């Protein structure tokens, strides 16, 4: 089964909160910056939407075969 790896570049994140509001199951803000609640997902779900809507491109979702 495919898995998705989720990474947040906390250097790039400006804490806009878009990811946490689009995808609260996977992203939350800690100390003003986003963190992924789970490093790996079984299904992409809303994480892809968060990735494409982050204004600074701080979220990276990669599919692992
Ligand atoms: Fe940060 Fe982007 Fe989320 S700036 S708070 S990772 S939408």
Report on this model:
The chain is α+β, with helices and mostly antiparallel strands and 65 residues long. The mean pLDDT is 97. It contains two helices and five strands; from the N terminus they run E-H-E-E-E-H-E.
Question: Would you summarize the structure shown here?
Answer:
This protein has 65 residues and is α+β, with helices and mostly antiparallel strands. 18% of the residues lie in helices and 34% in strands.
Task: Provide keyphrases for this structure.
single chain, 65 residues, alpha+beta, 3-stranded antiparallel beta sheet, two-stranded antiparallel ribbon, binds FE3-S4 cluster
Describe the protein's topology.
Elements: E1 3-8, H1 18-22, E2 27-30, E3 33-36, E4 40-41, H2 47-53, E5 59-64
Antiparallel strand pairs: 1-4, 1-5, 2-3
The structure holds FE3-S4 cluster (F3S).
Q: How many β-strand stretches?
A: 5
* Structural class label: alpha+beta
Estimated helix fraction: 10-25%
Mean pLDDT: 97
Low-confidence stretches: none
Distance between the termini: 7 Å
Note the overall shape. Answer: globular
Largest beta-sheet details: 3 strands, antiparallel
Strand order in the sheet with the most strands: 4-1-5
């Amino acid at each position: 089964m495919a898995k998705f790896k989720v990474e947040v570049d906390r250097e790039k994140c400006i804490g806009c909160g878009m990811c946490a509001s689009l995808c609260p199951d996977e992203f939350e803000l800690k100390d003003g910056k986003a963190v992924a609640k789970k490093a790996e997902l079984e299904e992409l779900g809303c994480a892809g939407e968060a990735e494409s809507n982050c204004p600074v491109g701080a979220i990276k979702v990669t599919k692992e075969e």
